[in-house]
Write a structure and sequence with these properties.
Blueprint (H helix, E strand, L loop, with lengths): L5 E3 L2 E6 L2 H7 L5 E5 L10 H12 L1 H20 L23 E13 L2 E10 L6 E7 L2 E7 L5 H13 L2
Parallel strand pairs: 3-4
Antiparallel strand pairs: 1-2, 2-3, 4-5, 5-6, 6-7
């Protein structure tokens, strides 16, 4: 059961404790958990709890997958960002280079699910370039897509991925 969720404006909101994430990022900042599209009095469903528990129990693996993929993607995009007019683009070659540039602040647990595990969106504040926020759509420890500066149809990506998995 996800503890201490409160209803606020169509969502259930709480916090999550991820010790290995605190250690990596060197931060005691709260990471919020948001389960959207809820009515007052609703509770988290089994698919939401499964996703939450998966992240807590596998927090190191989940973080490693996010960061490894991000290092690769950022390194590829770094050279393509010259048109943005940024004069300084930090070099990020390994996972530990990210600890000063990313800060996790929210995990959104979606209603879209596969095999009774909801998809999740993990959001980071990024100090890298003009990328702004970075959102990572995941299912368990599998990264599906990185989104920058807001979320555009992230649930649609989850639904499309789910359809692919079931062969629809």
């Amino acid at each position: 059961m996800i503890k201490d969720l409160e209803y606020d404006n169509g969502s259930l909101i709480g916090t999550i404790e991820l010790e290995s994430w605190k250690e990596f990022f060197g931060s005691d900042d709260k990471i919020y958990v948001v389960i959207g599209s809820k009515e007052k009095g609703d509770k988290a469903e089994k698919k939401h709890e499964n996703a939450y528990n998966y992240i807590v129990e596998n927090q190191q693996d989940v973080l490693a997958k996010i960061l490894y993929g991000y290092v690769t993607e950022y390194s590829e995009k770094r050279g393509d960002m010259n048109y943005m007019g940024d004069s300084y683009k930090p070099t990020v070659e390994k996972i530990t280079d990210l600890s000063g540039y990313l800060v996790p602040y929210c995990i959104k647990i979606l209603d879209t699910q596969f095999e009774d595990f909801s998809y999740t969106v993990i959001r980071f504040v990024s100090q890298l370039e003009s990328l702004g926020d970075v959102s990572v759509l995941m299912h368990k420890d599998r990264v599906i897509v990185y989104e920058y500066n807001g979320i555009v149809n992230i649930d649609k990506f989850a639904q499309e991925d789910c359809k692919e998995l079931i062969g629809a």
